[in-house]
Amino acid sequence: MTRPFNFSAGPAAMPLEVLQQAAAEMTDWHGSGMGVMEMSHRGKEFISIYEQAEADVRELLAVPANFKILFMQGGGLAENAIVPLNLSRGGKVDVVVTGSWSEKSYKEAAKYCTPHLAATGADTRFTTLPAAAQWQLSGDAQYVHICTNETIHGVEFHSLPDLQTLGCDAPLVIDFSSHVLSRSVDWSKVGVAFGGAQKNIGPAGVTLVIVREDLLGHALPICPSAFNYKTVADNGSMYNTPPTYSIYMAGLTFQWLKRQGGVAAMEQRNIAKAKLLYDFLDSSSFYSNQVAHDCRSRMNVPFFLADESRNDAFLAGAKAAGLLQLKGHKSVGGMRASIYNAMPIEGVEALIAYMRDFETRLA
Ligand code: PMP
């Protein structure tokens, strides 16, 4: 079976093998007589699915034992409230704004604490990342928030800041929604990592939260119980009914990732895919990407046609060629190719072939 290549930023394409396995198991999971959606979250069948998924993601991301892995609901945007509710103690927090998603985090935090804008990339219209050495950290912040891959602007941190060497003891909070599992994470630099599932993990509905144990237990009294990291951790993510089907699909994706060679192998493929596309864009006068080379995202590649009046024709031709969902985010315009883990290099090659052909036809 072949399908079109789907460049959606999220919810995004999933590995075909995962979808086919889910389809095969839809009405009867492993001879249990039940589909996964119909199982009690407390029954032995679902518990086994849950435990396998948790163990697999711990292994894939090499998460140390002093971090809890939580499967929550609410997506990345809910975490913009859940993080300050759990970590801010109502005090000051530092936020580095590098695009739309961290900007939302900064604004949402103000409902629960006092966010301080430690740095912003707004002066370059979010085409660069402000260097960590220049961040204006407050000194008394409860945490420092960054978005490690800005899905809309296409900027990515290729290494995490070491806050300690910047004289800051606060934990680092990372929103890794749109590049989770595409590369390894240096946990020695992280306090909390969160990510919605709908790019590299599975269907929307589950949020992966990885939190260092010493950060549990400091939630504000107004924090909803279902959003209290300690309550969720103490109950193995089953304080409330977790998004069982999304967790099952995430688990299938984790198994698929392991069969691909794990995160290290995937990272090499992602480097190769991104290089192919950026090299093509840089060699062209017909197309361009405006992000500084050292912070270009391997996952989300915004690009523009020099003649924007051709945008509609470009998209229509792409769709006809089996290349779906390339329209850029409305706040940036142009095009965006999201090339997450599930996008094979053949998809990037097909996109480049189409782009060359589109240009030649107009010449
Ligand atoms: N953070 C990032 C980096 C994202 O890309 C997104 C979604 N595109 C969000 C947060 C928000 O996620 P959700 O819509 O699941 O709340």
Automatic annotation (TrEMBL):
The keyword Transferase applies. Its main location: cytoplasm. The modification N6-(pyridoxal phosphate)lysine is found at residue 199. Pathway: Amino-acid biosynthesis; L-serine biosynthesis; L-serine from 3-phospho-D-glycerate: step 2/3; Cofactor biosynthesis; pyridoxine 5'-phosphate biosynthesis; pyridoxine 5'-phosphate from D-erythrose 4-phosphate: step 3/5. Its cofactor is pyridoxal 5'-phosphate. Pyridoxal 5'-phosphate binds at residues 101, 151, 175, 198, 240-241. It comes from the Bacteria. One of its GO terms (molecular function) is pyridoxal phosphate binding. Residues 5-351 form the Aminotransferase class V domain. One of its GO terms (biological process) is pyridoxine biosynthetic process. It catalyses: O-phospho-L-serine + 2-oxoglutarate = 3-phosphooxypyruvate + L-glutamate; 4-(phosphooxy)-L-threonine + 2-oxoglutarate = (R)-3-hydroxy-2-oxo-4-phosphooxybutanoate + L-glutamate. It is found in: Cytoplasm. The keyword Cytoplasm applies. L-glutamate binds at residue 42. Binds 1 pyridoxal phosphate per subunit. Homodimer. Belongs to the class-V pyridoxal-phosphate-dependent aminotransferase family. SerC subfamily. This is Phosphoserine aminotransferase. It comes from Limnohabitans radicicola. The lineage of its organism: Bacteria, Pseudomonadati, Pseudomonadota, Betaproteobacteria, Burkholderiales.
